[in-house]
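User: Hi! Is it possible to get a structure for several chains at once, not just one? Here's what I have:
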Amino acid sequence: MLQQVETSRAIAETVALCRPEVVCAYPITPQTHIVEALAEMVRTGELNPCEFINVESEFAALSVAIGASAAGARAYTATASQGLLFMAEAVYNAAGLGLPIVMTVGNRAIGAPINIWNDHSDSMSMRDAGWLQLYAETAQEAADLHILAFRVAEELSCPVMVCVDGFVLTHSYEQVDLVSQPAVDAYLPPFDPRQVLDPAEPVSIGAMVGPEAFLEVRYLAHHKQLRALERIPDLARDFRQTFGHDSGRLVRSYRTEGAETIAIALGSVNGTIQDVVDELRKEDVSIGSVSVCCYRPFPVAALRSLISGARRVVVIEKCLAPGIGGILSTDIRTALTGTGTPVLTAIAGLGGRPITKASLRELFLKAVTGELEELTFLDLHTELIERHLERERRQRRSGPTAENLLSDIRVLAGQIG
Amino acid sequence: MPAPIIKFYQTGTFTVGNRLLDEDVASVQSDTLRPNVLTSGHRACQGCGEALGARYALDAAMRATNDQLIVANATGCLEVFSTPYPESSWRVPWMHSLFANASSVATGIAAAMKVKGRAQVRVIAQGGDGGTTDIGLGCLSGMFERNDDVLYICYDNEAYMNTGVQRSSATPPAARTATTPAAGSQPGNPFGHGKSVPLIAMAHRIPYVATASVADLRDLEYKVQKSMRLHGARYIHVHVPCPLGWGSEPRETIRVARLAIETGLFPLFEAEFGKVTDRTPIRHVKAVEEYLRLQKRFAHLFQPGADPAWIRSIQEIANDNIVEFGLAEVSHA
Amino acid sequence: MGHSAHMFSHLGEIAQLGISPVAPRWSDTHSSDLDAQMLNPSEGKAHRMFQVRIHGRGGQGVVTAAEILSIAAFLEGKHAQAFPTFGSERMGAPVTAFCRIDDHPIRLREPIVAPDALIIQDATLLHRVPLFDGLADSSYLLINSTQAFEELAIREFAKPLPRERCCTLPATRLGLEHVGRPIPNAALLGGFAAISEILTIDSIADAIRRKFSGRVGEKNVEAARAAYGFVMERKITHAPAG
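Assistant: Yes, the chains can be modeled jointly so their relative placement is included. Here is the combined structure:
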């Protein structure tokens, strides 16, 4: 049913349709609206049977999910930013144990400096934890991906992170087609665990593994991801047939046919990019874009076939690997090995900095004319940087960086827009 | 092969219950058909108090739950020595996730059982003192506060033994560990105010808190069985000597543990909803020196030049415990 | 003559004044010939998005107002995207929320930099926050104030806008009168429907009811309708003689 709804609400209602049996929650902006809505649904009995557990930390949230999942219950939690880091040990553990937990990450920057706004630093920090990572492009996809996530998680016995841009999507009120319970039931079979703690059939889970088998266990984790790469397109096709939504592909291309320049990004910024692509196409600029929905496993072959014909690729990254630059870019370069296609990286939108059409347009035009450097920082306030570097040159005790910059631009922390 | 014949010469002792007693008072361990949840062949050291305590505790829990039990285990000695895969000593559904989260994992298991309508399946979380009093305390407190239907058992051997005997918040004052060496004028672990997780547990007003010791295994069985008749969050803190870390003889494990009780250094008590309801009185109070002398971790207290104030301070701790928990009441009566 | 007829004549007059109309082009809501005149033929079937920016303070229902606008647009079969810029969630702090309305799915995710309409829920922000950034020559401006528009001396802050598209509204007072709380958002939405006719007052009322059920919803609808009447009356008064 088509509804105008906050995306967090749409996510919560969709998660509820997946019949999670244990939901654990710890508040952190911007994912809170999701678990608040689920708490309400459990209280009213709309979501039943389900145990909703208010835990004392994100670490406990995922640990409770680990216990529940190992005992055969469908488990869900959500987090963001510092919360994801606080649960980091359990993130790896859940994947290592092969527990099909689904977790929403309301993508948010990581401090210091503390920042509640959107970028991808949080989920990117966990990209190699062994979870599948799916990035939602639209509100509709943010909701839909959760159904697909439970399906693929349980089929492969592997946890899945659904990454949803904080505020930009989580707090956006949009039109979403909320699917029906019978349709979800038809798409998502009951959880049939590969391993389960059961007194009727005692097993030990979580033993120490030495050098004799550790590599093989890790290889199988990799193998699982490769299987996901095969399964996700099929599951997305099933999804389209069942629900009529085009959600959960590995990658989604936009006007890439014959495009000389291809922009690549994760998540909701793809919408803005597509608007810019349309504008530039009208001006006869040969440009297209690719939205990477499935980031782990990384769809090397799918991307390669889409973008290797381009003369250049511009990766818009909402995260930064200090000391090298891009993260997604590195993976894109792997996909383009041997093609000689240059990969240009633009770090953009960190800590909620708006990524505007105007800036993207300028960026793409620079790329087209060959003026774009291999690594750029979109809308970087260079004057501010110079001022600070000068201050450091001038005095040893130059003071805390963030506070200095804020004084420099004379705005209060957190005041944007 | 016929079962080995074990002879018991006493009844009603504090060591093992006697199968000659009536079934309802006989110890679980005296039953030839005992569950043997932590079965033989594991890799614990000789004289390991933790292995002994865990076997008694879990067998008692199995008996109390009619074998409907799932166990979550924190990282630590117990986890490592019990599961040298492909072998596992656990004859119970058992899971190890991480060091700090055994209580949360147990909460998740209990929630799963509840939601699946299998609330008869009960859950125990267990860990050492590091996993309980240090790194796992946040999760443990959360589990207490929510009153989740989990029994948490802490096997307290007073340091991080698995990693090579480093200090934990359960390490007693003056004890020498790898990170509190007795060097120069330093008496090993500094004197502080300590950290009593049983008292912290009681502050959560949970249904049941108890301390127990491998020196009184019948008492341990009793407390575990009692706790499994209750629902909600429960906590049992078991004192388990570690011959390796304490520098005591493996054959002295029970004796060392008993002296901890008899000196007043490890009071045995039960509490319900935050109030102490029972304690084990000390029949003959022993001086702490007797306890300390058996352990090399306290050897520096007895060397020439050692400050006698150190032992006096430890004695004061024991005396305070005796007063605080009323451990001498019966003997004075 | 009904409200919408007034509106059309009003817009027609603007067109006659040579001010290019920026805003609404939905044939389903504006089905008169006058409306057809407004369409720029060169745009063909191209659409134009209508963007609303709402400024206020935490606790005044700024975000809710944008959400209600989006629901009203949805109820009229349009696509809408409402979103906030959140700071820390404290009462009294400046808050901005946005609403885009379009006939087509909205992909754009940037904050609204060039609003077609500006709703200011708290006049004390006039001196504090750069409210008028990106305002087009023909944008709508609605301010919560008991003062008349002229008395606010807006020219100190913003370039001149078509007078017919600017309005003040005692929205806090209307909130107090009808809802019993000094929350101006429902009234401002009614005022917005009146001044811009982007959305009908009936859609606004339905959207309010969807957001707030029962009595609270009805009281807010009352506030919105009262504000709608207030603005319509003033609009007729202010409409330049044709």
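Strands of chain C lie at 50-57, 79-85, 94-102, 117-120, 140-144, 166-169. Chain C touches chain A through 27 residues (CB under 8 Å).

User: Great, thank you!
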